[in-house]
Design a protein that fits this description.
With 167 residues, the protein is mainly beta. The protein has two domains: 1-82, Thrombin, subunit H (Beta Barrel); 93-167, Thrombin, subunit H (Beta Barrel), CATH 2.40.10. Helix content is 0%, strand content 54%. The protein has strands at 3-6, 12-18, 24-30, 42-45, 47-54, 59-64, 69-73, 79-82, 84-85, 88-89, 95-100, 106-111, 115-120, 126-131, 137-142, 147-152, 157-161. Strands 1-2-3-4 form a four-stranded antiparallel β-sheet, with no helix packed on it. A four-stranded antiparallel β-sheet has the order 5-6-7-8, with no helix packed on it. β9 (84-85) and β10 form a beta hairpin. The protein is globular and about 50 Å long. The termini are far apart.
């Protein structure tokens, strides 16, 4: 596996396994069920294993290679929603990272398009765009005091105010 995440209630484990192509199989294990007797649900997604986030007890997020951010139901592995930015897909290029704020109220997506975006974890609405890098954002972190750090292939690191998008 290249990714393992637990829901906050520790009932489900989500495991990501690259398929060898450009996609990843995600398997959801119900930790209250004997696994040798149950074939867990599996979903194949066009996503890097780094780009999955266990949002809450019911939902996971994946960032795809075509810039989509998809919300999935943990139990059924069914797609619930594809996030959008003014009617367009979430990002113009592949998603490179997704991080949840420590208080679980926001999440941040980063992309090869050089933009990071802050989303409300409950409503899935876009809060702010973090625009300032000239190349792909490779990593992000979210602090406890509403700051977002981004690192980019343009050899810069930026620190942003989550709500306003200001550096």
């Amino acid at each position: 596996p290249s990714f393992i995440g637990l829901t906050p209630d520790e009932r489900y484990a989500i495991v990501g396994c690259p398929t060898g192509s450009a996609s990843t199989n995600y398997v959801v294990f119900d930790l209250t069920t004997p696994h040798e007797l149950v074939q867990p649900p599996t979903v194949t997604i066009d996503a890097d294993p780094k780009c999955i986030l266990v949002l809450n007890n019911d939902q996971i997020l994946t960032g795809t290679r075509n810039g989509q951010v998809i919300v999935w139901d943990v139990v059924s592995c069914q797609q619930i929603q594809t996030l959008s930015d003014n009617g367009q897909i979430a990002h113009r290029d592949r998603i490179t990272d997704i991080k949840l704020s420590p208080d679980r109220s926001y999440f941040v997506t980063a992309s090869a398009d050089g933009i990071a975006k802050v989303w409300n974890a409950n409503t899935k609405e876009l809060i702010s765009r973090l625009v300032g890098h000239s190349r792909e954002i490779t990593c992000i972190c979210v602090s406890t005091n509403q700051l977002v750090g981004t690192g980019s292939r343009d050899e810069t690191i930026c620190l942003w105010r989550m709500q306003t998008g200001q550096i």
